[in-house]
DNA sequence: CTGTTAGCGCTTTCAC
DNA sequence: GTGAAAGCGCTAACAG
């Protein structure tokens, strides 16, 4: 005979109070650490709670206090290291402020994002950190209208007034442009992201604005945009290759984009030919040092963005101001010259 | 003057009932889709709910029904693509079953895992999917004792009887051993994971059990273990290099481990020497095709494991049996011969 | 400082 | 089929 499953009901605060020999309210006061309580009842309640393995019922607490101490974090692609790094840092920071993070992954899909916004609303999260896809959906409009404290991460949406914590894209692209000039590249293929995503638009705009002063060709045949995912970027890279405009360097506008571009280059040109093309990227990935030639990159400080975002939304929840912030980038030059 | 923040209180089911001109209970019955309701009240309640933008209060619902429709997913390293892939698939599957997933990241740290178990308990999740670090902590013991439906993902803990959904490590390592023999490697450095993690122990055991029949050296100086993270693996690789035992191939026991090992090889031996060593890995990473030479790998079906895990815990919640499952691996041979 | 009590929003009896 | 009412576990307001 197997041992019985003795599934005991979780202890409630009532059990704790009874065991400690105090009233319900006193137990609550001790356990919430709020008002004054005598050292005696404090000790007895704590002891009773420990003996019973008491863990407060979150939903009941949330219902009564009308707050959950939960933050929603909706990222656009959890498999993108930028976001998994960000999510990790945000969780840590949230925990330090007494919040739990509900992490959701929209997978660069607006419908999934809407579904999660709905879930968050029903969970009654206290605040939302959001890296949106693109335009404002009815669901998002409702979320904003509800007055839920909201900050954007790395991406914004036209017409929604919320603080944004993200990368200084102008600086990052500037670093890439400087590097391209230093390396003497004139014909550069630019593989961007969707213009509907602010990050995509900003990086493209900064590139367009600066390329001429940096001696880079303005041939529009070298400009393409994917979807910020590897497959879409590979297709974009192929479209440039199809045009037959020659180039000596490729600039990928985020990590997955660069991955897709490199894949396409190697498939279409073969490994040897592809190795004659220098690649530079926004986002620094683990393997860039192993590529041939090594890939230089703008490193975004995903962790700092996550931390700042949490602090921002915590400020909003507390009724304080939050003004958003652009986080500086660093450039990792892996070109042969830089290695000497 | 800025526009006023009109933060309207969220509509409650009481508001919906009033607007529809029915009693509270009727509105509830319609919205929960449970009992019989007349077509008339059904229509009016639904209309009222839509007009008010009603979204049910999850905590209140949870309190009353004594269930949350939330699953906890505790992974050991969200930045590891294996887990981010798994988490994504699990979320999708959970949604299909009417559950929301609370995703937490223990970062290969037992204390953080305990903290999240506590949070999950207070949130009153309905079930837990867990990729544990190692041994059984008091917190985990309490979780198990509470009778919470639990399944393990890819890793188990000695002495805890819960179904496990994970990779068929024996098969995967067998594929590596076959490949090593085919490639004619005799001196192979094995960089494993902690023996306290079942995955680490299993892969190591399978390797030890099979290496002799596959003509591989049994020199213990070639065996080392890291922590399943890149830095720890790099140190492990360096320890092997320090011993001066020559080898022609390296076997990394998971993705981050292989990353760290390759980094160490290139730093210590230089790029050219390192390129003489063939590398093979459990976990197939994006960049393995770009490495020189390309890295062959056992591909784990993380998505399938995530889906099966969700189905397993959903079965447990429903009081059904769940027996766990080993998911087959596929081997991706990127050696020069295979490319022809 | 502590006991008592109302009530958060919802589901689910129990009558009718 | 529907209305009324109890109560899930907790916090906070109010007396004492």
Automatic annotation (TrEMBL), chains A, B:
What domain of life? Bacteria
Q: Give the transmembrane region(s).
A: none
Keywords attached to this Swiss-Prot or TrEMBL record, sorted alphabetically, are: DNA-binding, Repressor, Transcription, Transcription regulation
- Please spell out the taxonomic lineage of the organism that makes this protein: Bacteria, Bacillati, Actinomycetota, Actinomycetes, Kitasatosporales
Q: Please name the SMART domains in this protein's record.
A: HTH_LACI (SM00354)
**Organism per entry:** Streptomyces endophyticus
Keyword Repressor included in the entry's annotation: yes
Molecular-function annotations in GO = DNA binding
Q: Which SUPFAM superfamilies match?
A: lambda repressor-like DNA-binding domains, Periplasmic binding protein-like I
Give every HTH lacI-type domain span: 11-65
Keyword Transcription listed: yes
- What's one Pfam family the UniProt record gives for this protein? Peripla_BP_1
Protein name (database record): LacI family DNA-binding transcriptional regulator
